[in-house]
Specification:
Chains B, D: Its cofactor is thiamine diphosphate. The complex is a heterotetramer, with 2 copies of chain A (346 residues) and 2 copies of chain B (326 residues). With 346 residues, chain A is an alpha/beta fold. Chain A is built from 12 helices and 14 strands. Chain A folds into 2 domains: 9-203, Thiamin diphosphate (ThDP)-binding fold, Pyr/PP domains (Rossmann fold, 3-Layer(aba) Sandwich), CATH 3.40.50; 217-344, Rossmann fold (3-Layer(aba) Sandwich). In chain A, the strands form 3 sheets. In chain A, strands 3-2-4-5-7-6-12 form a 7-stranded mixed β-sheet, with helices on both faces. Classes of the chains: A alpha/beta (346), B alpha/beta (326). At the B-D interface, helix 6 of B face helix 6 of D. The complex binds thiamine diphosphate (2 copies) and magnesium ion (2 copies).
């Protein structure tokens, strides 16, 4: 959807939505490199269902901003073949939930060709896709699924939480010689037609802005509890941290930003200081990110933990449609708050 | 066609349109002043079917609730035409415990075992399960059929091809319907599909293929009748494409700025056209038109009322129904 | 492949290969219930590439043992639709590695319909599929991927390691009113044309034999180290345990048998006694089973661990073709042994 | 056809057959007495292409190594015909560091940037990347083409349909080849495909479709020539199905007990047939036949020797090449 947004303030102080920051990165890279192009469903005249390509068609024309049929296997495969021949496609899968119709191209081809070729063939491409729930879109349009991608080797997996990182990670993803899966949460895009957190429109550096893939960031330093999280949940965690701060509970919020590579050192460093670990993950609970983060700590040294590690994630249930049910399973601030309190009171 | 049959088609079409208008109203009722997709009594994506009534009405007139229908992300017209309980369906759309899915599914995930109706939000992926329903029907010695629906955009998805081949190979009692409403969200048919008629693709499966060009419910009725008869007789599947009309946006909130044809759209509305035809043929007059409208309104508003009256699911039950208990 | 095997001994003492045990379960259930049928590629005259359906065509005919085109989306969807109408299909995906061409039917339909319908529609079916490497079949034919299935809610996931469990779990899977993914490792099938461990042909109870889904088994009791594992790796773990026993290292081997539901209590009970945890997993290391098992312990009580937990899994690399490379990444006995020794010497 | 061109086709076919026979020999050399798929110098599944030489030879005669070929799990004949380096290819099949993929890929995963050759073990999934190669070729203003190969079994996979539609829609310079060898492992074509010719499916994409019925390399050469010329001229894709022959098992170790036609198979071998034709036409005689055979043998045995001489990869390098370094 493409309702109008307030235009950004002065350039120095300008704030952008995450969507616009993504578009800015793509646009700058397209100007810089003729081999970069975009393809996907409704990326042209519509500008991307979640505004991830708004304005690019006008700027670059239909040869470089290409609407596709609803044939994800064919057009993701097209991106792969073009990348193999040295182009740098950005291909959009409208919702990550649709991976099931095209996963073979993604994980058996995009992710493995470089390895199978002994490094002789590079596949420099970005697979951009929307994730996340919270607006009652039901079980087939609300998932995060980053754990599924991160489990399968050969693709980098990045997940920004804010406009500046979205720009910087997109720039890195486009320039990376590897396939990069770029998962953007609808709730951080700053869309005018969806409830959004206040940080989804924020300062974004002008010009070239690169955020290296594989480095977590400390979204908030703290000393009592380490909250390891990513994407929209970063904001819930920050909100909870601010709320608990007056009570003397000082949460550190680690924004992973990248699952593959995973910044294990950043996690270990923080948990080493706080001794308490909470993983907040909007993906499904089991066999995914939250377990991995805990394992990375415990296979190094379980004694850094003063008590049990905790997880707030979607408890292995498809995302329900009805709002009271959906908000019962999402990692909401109230669930995060409760988990933090249990950790510090344990 | 007999006057009564024509009247029945009209009734179904009016019921569908009345339903969609009511959902439209309820959907937007509490999303102002700034549209927020997740807000209100009916949140989430909403794909309405206004303009496509002829397809559902024409096809489902040949079915009983023992036959199966698998529909798409735009499922209401087929659900209504196939006889899904309006109250339970509406309650589901409102996310209530009395809904078809007890509020778990929502408007793209309507499952009604009573009428063997289902739908899916994933493009073309409603076709394959229809094959299995057809297989089960045949194995049990019945002449029941499965109708599987997609849009013209979906006809370029792999599942379409695989399903047609399998159904043709096994001569399954399936009728494949393609609703060509010219658009797949913002992508015009010309930018998604390399042929102007999906009927030509039927030859690639050695099955009958037809395209109905004018969104005429009677033409749909006739062509679908042949296909369903054929399927019931064990002669295998058919493919029918109907050139229909997306009267409104892809989903609610769609600005449709990409849509060049928008101005001409209201004039192509199949409902007034069909109504005029039936008036001219003496099948309808002012009183009967009013009666049909009133009846439809009553049923639809009762369903809306039922939904609104029904309780929302308890958060404590959020983990139920992942698995069936032994 | 279907080379001849030695015929089983007397019925009382009979031993069966895992493949034959699976077939026996299917056959018995097909006799018991007319609604059970089998479909998939090469399940008829060929008898299943890994002998999972050998002899069934002769016994039950082509109406109930159905060869399909290479159209996984269509025929798995067919199984789903038939299950929705009350039949009980067993559908075979020849190699789990092919899930990418049909995952939508599996995880967005098979796994979610029951939930989305509020429990009104049941989907009683078995998705059987071959997993695992070790015979140089390369990156697209050697994966385990059970973590991928277990991460996505709505399907039970079972993974037998031996003939008796294969029979018992298959019986349970067929009778279950839920979709059950049944992953059989090629290396445990007891195939005459593939190197096999000695326990892949073993005693199997006659007649009805049910192994409940969700219960791990203690494949070997021990007191020093808990090795949590499954499938072929159970045998490697047992071999290592036997080898280390004379050195006074007493390993307990837990055969998970089922990932969903996961028998957390069995893991906790064992680790609670041994204080040392090693997870051995032929799936990829990160974001999968091995992290989950560790997290289940640590979110309960990290103090049960006397030292860091350890993992032996495929280190996030596609399965290489060349034997020396493949065996460098598989969870071989030597890697397991080394991990156990590091745990006890820590 | 000119004698020289016929001779070239023959040479290619002989080279392919010689290659496959050598791999067959090496594959089984150290798997006795009991066949163990994972044992020996060449372990793993092995899908050989004997009998299908006419397809690869006829098609690739029109290509240069600037053109792309994406092949299947049965890739050797196309790799050889397209000019992939025999030594590197063989070394890959033997899992050596000197191989195309440094031993990481194996026989189903041969990637050769020098000839734009690739293949995939997943049915029909080699088609989509070919579209991207074609797109890149066109975007760079060249007249290079991409040839994409599948078997007749694979033509019922969703990727087939999606690829044909997309290529036709965008008029990409792709030629789609379907090798109909009657079997998909143990499943005969009649049990997988609802039509007797995939050429009829071309109409569903508005592109030319042809079926070559007799495994004749010259017929393939002719039809492929037209399709490739068309693609180079910017007129879009074509679909060509060739009725060919699986001379041996699906893979090595396949007992083929399901194969009713087995007895008649040797008589259909296209190599002696073509040889006889060329002898009758005066293009070949005893000395030239021997010379072609000797040349092929020398090249193939040199490649096998190269592979055997080459070092195996070090276990310590097992984690290399997952990612390209920045
Ligand atoms: C596999 C998949 N890809 C993309 C989508 C997103 N999507 C939802 S509806 C739609 C357009 C469908 O067009 P068409 O099939 O013509 O049906 P219509 O909406 O016109 O009824 C798209 C692309 C989806 N739901 N599933
Ligand atoms: C998606 C997928 N499904 C199944 C297989 C297993 N498989 C490998 S080859 C083959 C038969 C292919 O038949 P065809 O396409 O006719 O090629 P042929 O082997 O005859 O050359 C099958 C089913 C696979 N590799 N990929
Ligand atoms: Mg449409
Ligand atoms: Mg074949």
């Amino acid at each position: 959807m493409t309702l109008t947004e307030p235009s950004p303030a002065t350039r120095a102080q300008r704030k952008l939505s995450t969507a616009k920051a993504m578009v800015e990165a793509i646009s700058q890279e397209m100007e810089r490199d003729q081999d970069v192009f975009v393809l996907g469903e409704d990326v042209g005249a519509y500008g991307g269902i979640f505004s991830s390509t708004t304005g690019l068609l006008d700027k670059f024309g239909p040869e470089r901003i290409i609407d596709t049929p609803i044939s994800e296997t064919a057009f993701i495969g097209t991106a792969i073949g073009a990348a193999v021949e040295g182009m740098r496609p950005i291909v959009e899968l409208m919702f990550v939930d649709f991976f099931g119709v095209c996963m073979d191209q993604i994980y058996n081809h995009m992710a493995k060709i470089h390895f199978e070729s002994g490094g002789n063939v590079k596949v420099p491409m970005v697979l951009a896709t929307a994730v996340g729930g919270g607006y009652s879109d039901g079980a087939q349009h609300s998932q995060c699924l980053w754990g599924t991608f991160a489990h399968l080797p050969g693709m980098k997996v990045v997940v920004p939480s804010n406009p500046a990182d979205a720009k910087g990670l997109m720039t890195s993803a486009i320039r990376d010689d590897n396939p990069v899966v770029f998962l953007f949460h609808k709730g951080i895009m700053g869309l005018p037609w969806m409830a959004k957190n206040r940080r989804s429109i924020d300062h974004v550096p002008d010009g070239e802005h690169v955020v290296p893939i594989g480095e977590a960031s400390v979204a908030r330093p703290g000393s009592d509890v380490t909250i390891v999280t990513l994407s929209l949940s970063v904001h819930h965690a920050l909100d909870v941290a601010e709320e608990l701060s007056p009570q003397g509970i000082d949460c550190e919020v680690i924004d992973l930003r990248s699952l593959v590579p995973l910044d294990t050192e950043a996690i270990l460093e923080s948990v080493g200081r706080t001794g308490r670990l909470l993983v907040v993950d909007e993906d499904y609970l089991s066999f995914g990110l939250s377990g991995e983060v805990i394992a990375r700590v415990v296979e190094r040294d379980p004694t850094v933990l003063r008590g049990p590690a905790a997880r707030v994630a979607v408890p292995d249930v498809p995302i329900p449609y009805a709002r009271p049910l959906e908000y019962a399973v999402l990692p909401t601030p109230s669930r995060i708050r409760q988990a933090v309190l249990e950790l510090v009171n344990a | 066609m007999q006057p009564q049959d024509r009247l029945d088609l009209y009734r179904t079409m009016v019921l569908i349109r009345t339903y969609e208008e009511a959902i439209l109203r309820e959907y937007h009722a509490d999303k102002k002043p700034v549209f927020d997709i997740g807000a209100g009594l009916v949140p989430g994506e909403m794909h309405l079917s206004a303009g496509q009534e002829p397809v559902a009405a024409g096809v489902c007139a040949h079915l009983t609730t023992d036959d199966a229908v698998t529909a798409t992300h735009r499922p209401h017209h087929f659900a209504v035409a196939h006889g899904v309980d309006l109250e339970k369906m509406t309650a589901e759309i409102f996310g209530r415990v009395t809904g078809l899915g007890k509020g778990r599914g929502g408007h793209m995930h309507l499952f009604d075992p009573a009428t063997h109706f289902s739908c899916s939000g994933i493009i073309a992926e409603g076709y394959p399960p229809a094959l299995g329903q057809a297989l089960a029907f045949r194995r049990r010695g019945s002449d029941r059929v499965a109708v599987a629906v997609t849009g013209e955009g979906a006809a370029n998805q792999g599942a379409f091809h695989e399903s047609l081949n399998l159904a043709a190979l096994w001569k399954l009692p399936v009728v494949f319907i393609v609703e060509d409403n010219d658009w797949g969200i913002s992508v015009p048919r010309s930018a998604s599909t390399c042929v102007t008629s999906n009927a030509v693709r039927a030859a690639g499966y050695g099955i009958p293929g037809a395209r109905v060009e004018d969104n005429s419910v009677e033409a749909v009725h006739e062509v679908a009748g042949e296909a369903i008869t054929r399927a019931r007789a064990g002669e295998g599947p058919s493919l029918i494409e109907v050139h229909t009309l997306r009267l409104w946006g892809h989903f609610e909130g769609d600005p449709q700025s990409y849509r060049s044809d928008l101005e001409g759209v209201p004039g192509k509305d199949p409902l007034p056209t069909f109504e005029q035809e039936l008036r001219a043929a003496g099948v309808l007059d002012d009183p009967s038109v009013s009666a049909v409208a009133a009846q439809a309104r009553d049923r639809v508003e009762a369903a809306i009322e039922f939904a609104k009256r029904s309780p929302e699911p308890e958060p404590a039950t959020a983990l139920d129904f992942v698995f069936a208990s032994a």
